[in-house]
Amino acid sequence: MRVVIVTESFPPDVNGVAHCALQTARHLVDRGHLPLVVAPATASGPGPGVDALAPCPVVRVPSLPLPGYPQVRVALPSRRVATAIAEHRADIVHLASPFVLGVRGMAGAARLGIPAVAVYQTDLAGYAR
């Protein structure tokens, strides 16, 4: 199965969402599936090794630091999400959060007629305080 994992956080970020997205990708690869991760660009930008430990390809979307939490990157709306879903020929889209990339992933999957499943792991209201 070809799965696109759309996540607001992925290593090198160190948090629960990044860890769960990484483990999901690893489990899919271990079971013979073909995942692709779509995640925000890192603060250091693209470079050798930034995704070297990922078990599958990673598409990075332009991002900016979250005001007050510069270590958290917020993806900018981008057509790269729908393009990645289409080019990967996804059978399903896994939405790892309901924020900018999650909404773009949901819209891209719907437009392409691809089923999507969503999980919610972050207290966004807590971040807003």
Structural class: alpha/beta
The strands making up the biggest β-sheet line up spatially as: 3-2-1-6-7
CATH class: Alpha Beta
**Low-confidence runs:** none
Instruction: Assess the beta-strand content as a share of residues.
Output: 25-35%
* Percentage of residues assigned to helices: 25-40%
CATH architecture heading: 3-Layer(aba) Sandwich
Q: Between the first and last Cα atoms, what is the distance in angstroms? A: 40 Å
Radius of gyration: 14 Å
**Largest β sheet strand count, sense and barrel closure:** 5 strands, parallel
Question: What number is the mean pLDDT?
Answer: 90
- The number of helical elements comes to 4
* Annotated CATH topology: Rossmann fold
CATH homologous superfamily heading: Glycogen Phosphorylase B
Strand segment count:
7
Write down the secondary-structure element order: EHEEEEHEHEH
Domains counted in the coordinates: how many? 1
